[in-house]
Write a structure and sequence with these properties.
The protein is mainly β and 193 residues long. It is built from no helices and 26 strands. It has a ten-stranded mixed beta sheet with strand order 1-4-7-10-13-16-19-21-22-23, with no helix packed on it. The radius of gyration is 17 Å and the shape is globular. The termini are far apart.
Length: 193
């Protein structure tokens, strides 16, 4: 086995876990899950059958990644953040055929205690603040806060806020890395490799 599993964790037969990943205390990984290389699943994490997790993903304590959630490479899931997979759940009504897909793209951060309502796409390197409730798609590099979540700015790939308006034209440098970003309308792109 090229990954580490704490003795208290349960990894069902059939689950695929990549090299160098770590599965901590009281984690349950279901049989159909696919987890990439170099991932960390913190204490009390649940990973469903129809879940795909990329490389170098960090899932902090007390997070359940339910069916139909895809996390691309480098995603960070903060402590006790929440995914859903049914939009209008009822205990007495079976809705497994109505699961909505949720996609979290490369490098995105989902802050502690935030909620991601199913059926949305979180763009690359977006940053969802602690406690926010996301109920619509999030653009790449967007900084989202509040209930419901609203965009208040833009973030660099390094995780620093960029000095740019929400829309219009402009350029800014990441205060830490110096990498340049360009705003064109309501979209941002990285100019430096």
């Amino acid at each position: 086995m090229s990954y580490q599993v704490h003795p208290s964790a349960i990894v069902d037969d059939g689950a695929v876990i990549g090299d160098g990943s770590r599965v901590w205390h009281f984690v349950h990984v279901c049989a159909g899950a696919r987890i990439g290389r170099g991932c960390s699943l913190g204490q009390n994490v649940f990973v469903g059958n129809q879940v795909v997790i990329g490389d170098q993903v960090k899932i902090q304590n007390n997070v359940s990644v339910y069916d139909n959630v895809t996390l691309e490479d480098g995603v960070f899931c903060g402590p006790s953040m929440v995914f859903t997979n049914v939009y209008n759940p009822r205990s007495l009504i079976e809705r497994k055929s109505e699961y909505r897909n949720t996609l979290v793209k490369r490098g995105a951060t989902l802050g502690a205690n935030c909620t991601i309502v199913c059926g949305v796409t979180i763009g690359e390197f977006a940053f969802v603040g602690a406690g926010a409730v996301v109920n619509k798609d999030v653009p790449a590099y967007a900084l989202m806060v509040g209930v419901p979540a609203r965009q208040i700015g833009w973030m660099s790939e390094f995780g620093e806020q960029l000095d740019l308006p929400l829309e219009g034209e402009g350029e800014a440098r990441c205060p830490h890395s110096g990498v340049r970003y360009r705003l064109n309308g309501k979209q941002i792109s990285k100019l430096d490799a």
